[in-house]
Design brief:
The protein is α/β, with parallel strands linked by helices. Helices cover about 40% and strands about 25% of the residues. The longest helix has 20 residues. The relative contact order is 0.08.
């Protein structure tokens, strides 16, 4: 069965608020084998709400509306559903009494507009809200000849999520055929998205029952594999079979077959070899250290490092000879090598990493353009430097540089 989640509220169409309930509901729906095919955010305008509801009913079996059940003039979800389905609203006496009792318990007088929270759609089941004054509603109906389930839930997360768990999931469990969803996430580094798709599409396109999505960001490729079957064993078998073929095609580009981050994998290899890492960062400004230390237990393998943005600190903290910088420039193969080797020796780490580059938007020359990055990796056996030129704004260059540097360390450890 396909579902659509509709988040209602004009505040979510501003830069300051976003819908988070749908992430929670998606996880819960997937656990019982329901695919979320669409997510919609709509403002508090009655005509827009009606159109969104009608569209959702045309393309989904389950429609879940969150928000717009409060007492104010712009809380219009009940009215919009009534318009969309040509249903009447009735004021429920038991709910009116409960609203008065709630106000009395709080020792406040209840405004008349609160009574609209007692309006119930024709044929709907009232869903008890233990954490607020707006009850949810459940409709099991026929629309355009097909069975549809419509749920109205309050918007605040502390009301929406418990109500869905306690009232909606048990009802869905009695209706939905048993179906299990298996997932796998493969991750690859420094492989362009277009090249990834050219390489992998001939493989995953033959698995029509496995939904495959490619996501790309700053040198990181994620392959999301999802398959639903009557049994978890069957679903996992199909996902694992496809994952194995994709892994083989990706070769050295793939760094994770279970969704781990690149920094997690680098720390795994360091731990496997009982090795330690230190970093000297210039253009990345601590981004690499931040990524590594975001992983719990990183201190077992990551000894630390330094942000050496000025030439003076490259010398003072990483031991880069001042004359080397003067001769070759701070952004150079020689300085990247010296940073990597110097920070390794200064900290006693097994592996040292040095990164220097021109993140932009200014500072580039014809021979050293904006986006040029040198990464040095040093251990007791050798020091190597690789360079790349990345396109984009300052943040994008920094993110690519951090990803590239971590991937070079991964290759060294492998």
């Amino acid at each position: 069965m396909k579902s659509e989640i509709v988040a209602v509220g004009s505040e979510m169409l501003t830069p300051f608020r976003q819908d988070t309930n749908s992430l929670y509901l998606t996880e819960k729906l997937n656990e019982i084998g329901v695919t979320v095919a669409f997510k919609t955010v709509v403002g508090d305008r009655r005509k827009d709400l009606v159109r969104v509801i009608q569209t959702a009913l045309e393309r989904a079996d389950i429609v879940i509306l969150m928000g717009g059940l409060g007492p104010t003039e712009d809380d219009l979800t009940r009215e919009a559903v009534a318009d969309a389905l040509s249903l009447t609203l009735r004021r429920d006496g038991a709910l009116v009494a409960a609203l008065h009792a709630r106000a009395a318990a709080w020792r406040i007088s209840m405004p008349q507009n609160n009574l609209k929270q007692a309006d119930v759609l024709e044929g709907a089941v009232v869903l008890a809200n233990q954490n607020g004054s707006a009850p949810g509603q459940w409709l099991d109906m026929v629309y355009s000849g097909y069975r549809k389930l419509v749920m109205l839930l309050p918007g605040p997360p502390h009301e929406c999520r418990p109500l869905f768990d306690n009232e909606c999931l048990p009802r869905l469990g009695k209706i939905i055929p048993e179906r299990h969803i298996a997932r796998r996430t493969l991750r690859a580094a420094m492989l362009p998205e277009s090249q990834a798709d050219k390489l992998l599409a001939p493989i995953y396109s033959t698995y029509a029952d496995v939904e495959t999505t490619i996501l790309a960001h700053a040198g990181d490729i994620q392959l999301l594999l999802i398959c639903g079957k009557p049994t978890m064993e069957a679903a996992r078998q199909r996902v694992d079979e496809l994952a194995g073929k994709l892994e083989e095609a990706l070769g050295d580009w793939i760094y994770s077959s279970q969704g781990e981050s690149l920094e997690q994998i680098v720390l795994y290899y360091l731990g496997l070899r009982q090795a330690t890492l230190a970093v000297a960062e210039s253009c990345t400004g601590g981004l690499i250290a931040q990524r590594i230390t975001s992983v719990a237990g990183a201190s077992r393998s990551f000894v630390g490092g330094t942000v050496v943005y000025s030439d003076e600190l490259k010398t003072a903290f990483a031991g880069v000879p001042a004359e080397l910088i003067a001769r070759h420039g701070a952004v150079s193969e020689e300085v990247a090598a010296a940073l990597a080797n110097g920070i390794r020796l200064q900290t006693g780490a097994s592996v040292g990493m040095g990164v220097t580059g021109i993140a932009g938007p200014t500072g580039g020359t014809e021979s050293k353009p904006v986006g040029l990055v040198y990464v040095g990796v040093s251990d007791a056996q050798k020091t190597e430097v690789m360079s790349r030129t990345f396109r984009g704004d300052r943040q994008r260059v920094r993110e690519y540089a951090a990803q590239y540097a971590l991937d070079l360390v991964r290759h060294r450890l492998m």
